[in-house]
Every structure is written in C-alpha cells, then in structure tokens.
Amino acid sequence: MIISHINYQIYDMYFLLNIKTAFRLVILSIALCACNLGDPEPPAAVFPVPGEAQLKWHNLEQYAFIHFTTNTFTNLEWGYGDEDPSIFNPSSLDTDQWASVIHDAGLKGIIITAKHHDGFCLWPSRYTEHTVKNSPYKNGDGDVVAELAASCKKFGLKFGIYLSPWDRNHKDYASEVYIEYYRNQLRELLEKYPEVFEVWFDGANGGDGYYGGTRETRRIDNRTYYDWPTTINLVRQLTPDALMFSDAGPDIRWCGNERGFVGETNWNLISTDSIYPGKPGIVDLLNIGSEDGTHWIPAEVDVSIRPGWFYHPEEDDKVKSPEELFNIYLSSVGRGSNLLLNIPPDKRGLIHENDVKSLMDWKKMIDEAFSNNLASTANITANTTRANSSKFSIRNVNDGDPSTYWSTNDNILTASIEIDLGESQTLNYLMLQEYLPLGQRIKSWSVEYAKGDEWVKIAEASTVGYKRILPLDGIKAKTLRIKIQDSKACPVLSSIQVY
Ligand code: FUL
User: Fold this and answer.
1) How many other CB atoms are there within 10 angstroms of residue 492's CB atom?
2) 8 to 16, 20, 23, 375, 433: CA distances (angstroms)
3) If you measure from the C-alpha of residue 17 to the centroid of ligand 1, how many angstroms do you get, rounded to a whole number?
4) Which is the CATH superfamily of the domain at 52-369?
5) Which of 156, 272, 472, 486 has the CB geometry, 3.0–4.6 Å to 427, for a possible disulfide?
6) Closest atom of ligand 1 to CA, residue 67
7) Which residue's CA is the closest to the ligand 1 atom numbered 1?
8) Separation of 202 CA from ligand 1 center, angstroms?
9) Among residues 40, 44, 2, which one has the least CA distance to residue 411?
10) What is the Å distance from ligand 1's center to 82 Cα?
11) Is 202 in the pocket of ligand 1 (CB under 6 A)?
12) Sequence spans of domains, the chain
C-alpha cells in the first residue's frame, strides 16, 4: 500500500509536469504559427503615396464651385476691374439656398470666388475699399464669404476659397507690393476660416486691366512673379490640413481642360519639375499624370453647369442636362478624379430654378444607377491571394470596409478575379477601387463575361486609382472576370462593385 501510494504520488507529479510542459509547448507553437503564418506582411507601399488630407479629399469625390462677383451684374466673364461696387446688388441673396441645393445634389462642399480677376472682394477686406462694404448689399454690412461659411457649417458641407492671383483692379498688380497685398488677403481669410479644405489658385492672366485707373496691359512672368513657394508655406502654416490647387499643385492639379474630363488613364502622380503654374503645353500631361511621377498630386475636374463660369440670363436654357452631368460624373469621379462642379448664382443671389432641376434629376440618376450593388452578395474568387492569407482574401473587396483589401504575393503582377452573381443579370457598371494608402499600382486590366463556354471581352482599361467605373452597356451575364494584366507592384484592391 505504502509503496504504491508513493508510486502514485511520483506518477501524479510526472503527469502534472508533463501537462504543464505540453501546455507551454502548445502556447509556444501557437505564438510561432501566428508570427510565421497567421500574420503575413502587407505589401510594401509604392511611393509616392497620398497624405492624410489627400486621402480625405479623395473620399469627397465631388463638390461645388460658386462663381459670383460684379460679373454677375455686368454679364461679363472677366471683369475689367473698374466696376463700381454699387452694381453689386443681389435682391435676395441666400447662401442657405446655395448650400441646401448643393447638399441635396449630393455634393460635399463649396469653393467660392472670394475674389475673381476683377478684384472685387465678397468680404469686407481691410486691405481694400473694392469690396461688398461699398455695395448696396445689406447696406454695406454684408459678407458673402462669412455667410456662405456659416451655411456650409449648417448643411454639413466643406468650405473652400478661391482667391484670384490676377487682380485687374489693384493699382500695384505686377509689382512686389501687390504680392504683399495678396498674401495679406490670404492671411485675413485663412485666419478667419481655418477649417477650409481647399485653397484654389487660378493660373489665368490676360494682361490688360484697370489697375488703379492706368488701364494698361501688365505682363508678369508666371513662373517667378508670385513667388509661390513663400505663399504655399504661408497657407501651410495657417491651415495645415487645407489642400492647395493650381495648374501645378502642390496638392491637387488641374485636369488640363474645363470640359469635364480627366484622362482614361489617370495617374495621381506627376513630377513637380515637369510642371509650374501657367507652363505652356502641359495640358495633356495634367490630364493623365505620369506613371513614374515623383509626387502624389491628383487631378481635379473643374467644369461649369452652364457655358460660362458666371451667371448670364441668356444661358438659362443652356444649363447642362442631367444626362450631360451624369457623363461628366463618369469621366471625372468615374476615372478616379474629383469633380468641382460650378453652379453660378443669378442676379437675385440664388441658384436658378433650371440649375436646381438639372442637379436634382442628376442626383436621382446617380442614386438609381449605383443603388443596388450586385457584387455585395456575389461569390467572388481570385486565382491568387497574398500568402494564401484570409487577411488579404478576395472577400475583402465586397465586405463594405474600405480599410480591408485583396492583394497578391510581391512578385505577382497579374491576376484573374471571377464574380459569380448567382443568376444572369443586366449589368450597367463595374466599379473598382485601389487601396490608396499603399500607392497607385494597376496599369492595365480588362473585363470579360461568360457566354456559354466562352469568355467575351467587354472592356479594356488602364489605371484604377481611387475609383474606376467602367460602363458594361447593359449586357446580360451571370459571371464576370476581371483580368489584371499589369501592375507597378502587386495589385491591391479594396472594392469591387457591380451595378
Ligand atoms: C479660369 C478663370 O479665368 C475663369 O474665369 C474661371 O474662374 C475658371 C475656374 O478658371 O482660369
């Protein structure tokens, strides 16, 4: 009995020790597995990549431009600079109406011409008398910039400022003194509106103007006169989160035309030494960017809902139709660019009824076209997945989460993705999105659909970027195949949608 009791104690001790050791071994191997297999490395970023503020800007997709100044009352596009402030007299200006219409149209912000080329200031600037202060509007107590900033807040819209560098009113334009004036006005505005999301620098300069009564032509060297680096530093200091637009960046570039489209190939990249504001002959480059550009400077498509940038009564029946606006949406947002849609208020200071109607019908078209994402319930498979890991699974492209993505191993630059919709459907659009924090990568891809035993190609495309929408022309298909044919590095897709 005694012997066997001792034996049992020794046996128990060994048993306990073994369980502990086994338990430790299991924990250790789980940890090792997690390091080696469960948590594979994400793809390395392909530089340049967007900054935080640029990523937020991409998400906005579309916002409005407001062109409003003395031109609205003189029926001009470019005021000469000699307009008497007394002509600025909107009878029922209502920035809440602008903001409410723009909000209801699905646009996410408003950029206002605080000062256009004619030099008239929509706010009572302390640096000039050529402002609303000397107009009949609210007996000189009005401030259209402040009123709009408040309306934007009220309607949850972003607020941005256009301040024309060219000033046909100012007596010192073309000299150093004017640059000081321009920077003073920027400081005056940005100190008051530190929340601005975008500051718009216009590159236009037509030469002649009133210039304090001299009525002459003044030419400047666009490359050196404005000393942009100093002005850009000033804006960065005052509003570190605001992005600056010009022909040449530094944060957002012009798309090279005012007709509403960016290139079908649209790189968010461009080399800064290849561009400067006003540089001739770069519109094609601005339209498509450069695959090997040194900086992330995405394109913005600025276009007006009417033929002119300012309101002209004779254009009331020339407002772009909802269909035209929809096509512009496809050739701007649908090509990975942001759309800046100009909607000029009329002499009353209201967005005209015809523009409102077009905008609302356009919004309805967008909502209808992109309301039912058939990919959200589809069975999507890929022929290759990074490290065979669920972390980079193709399921991430239809989980509705923009922070998850599918990718491939580093050396794999091509892939094939099948989308099985379960049953045959009429298909109008395919939408792809790259995961931009890791850089823009895809260079070439195509779409096919299954017809019997055959794959039939229906579209061929190059870049994807923030968003690429390809029309599918109403084909009927149950299965689609996306073929990524070339990529700068392993492709990284965050979303695939089918409508
Ligand atoms: C151009 C200007 O000359 C037009 O008047 C308008 O403001 C457009 C957005 O930019 O350069």
Assistant:
1) 26
2) 12, 18, 22, 64, 67
3) 81
4) Glycosidases (3.20.20.80)
5) 472
6) 7
7) 204
8) 7
9) 44
10) 19
11) yes
12) 52-369, 374-498
Tokens 């996410």 found at: 108
CATH architecture type of domain 374-498 = Sandwich (2.60)
Q: What token pair was written down for 62?
A: 């579309």
Token pair for 400 = 């509705």
On the question of a common fold for 52-369 and 374-498, the answer reads: no
**Alpha carbon of 278 to ligand 1 centroid (Å):** 13
